Amino acid sequence: MHIGRSFLVVFTLTAAISAGAFAQQAQPSSLPPGSPAATTTIPGDQLPPPPQKFGGKIERDAKDSRPYWPARVVPPKGAPNVLLIITDDAGYGVSSTFGGVIPMPALDRIA
Question: Do 92 and 53 fall within a single domain?
């Protein structure tokens, strides 16, 4: 089961990479904080981004509560296109890019 999960993660990454690598260029949204489509940028010196403060209100009844969604983090305009791959305890499921037996030609080309 562990090998299958590792393969699925690597396969998903390879499929995303093969689809074409391009930087997502977005600006922070002008939507009010807490709305589902709100976005924000971060300095980029911390990965993953720090947790955002919850600005909603949770009450006993849903009708008295106020929803709040954390803003989606987007890169600032002109940010470089960087792909960060972190693996842990891949064992025999490691891809050929990292010396394993599973062939990953798209990932090999990127490396």
Answer: no
